[in-house]
Design brief:
This protein is of the alpha+beta class. It contains 6 helices and 3 strands.
């Protein structure tokens, strides 16, 4: 049948509440990690995840990832004192930057193309396609003038 990932968790009323709770815990961990690091390095820590003594820190660049690895002991000691149990390992992962394309506007035809279309479209009043083409040409010419 259907999977119910939060069925056995009596504290969870909905899946969204569970996700929000997890994110708030991870945000607190990020604050702990950032407080143990120098300010210039802390600003490049984006997210922290822990799972069974393994800590994963996400950063925005490979340069900062290597600098974070040098401070592995500081980060693990700080989180170990927070949890009360030793944290075994630290991984640093680099998040790739998401590139968004700027929406390009459609190209409007040149005046030469519009005049060529107007000359090629000799339509009488009974031809619905020709009438529509004339309306399109005049609308594009008006838009071109503004």
């Amino acid at each position: 049948m259907f999977k119910q990932p939060f069925k056995n968790n009596p504290l969870s009323k909905s899946g969204l509440q569970q996700v929000q709770k997890t994110l708030s815990k991870q945000g607190k961990l990020l604050g702990i990690v950032k407080s143990s690091l120098p300010k210039d390095l802390a600003s490049h820590c984006l997210h922290v995840i822990t799972n069974q003594g393994r800590v994963t820190v996400f950063t925005d660049s490979s340069v900062w990832a290597s600098k974070l690895l040098y401070l592995r002991k500081v980060i693990l000691d700080e989180l170990s004192s927070h949890f009360g149990t030793p944290q075994k390992s630290l991984k640093i992962k680099v998040l790739s930057k998401q590139v968004s394309k700027a929406k390009s506007r459609p190209k409007s035809p040149s005046n030469t193309a519009l005049s060529f279309l107007a000359q090629a479209n000799d339509a009488d009043a009974t031809d619905p396609l020709g009438v529509s083409m004339n309306k399109l040409i005049t609308a594009l010419q008006k838009k071109r003038q503004t």
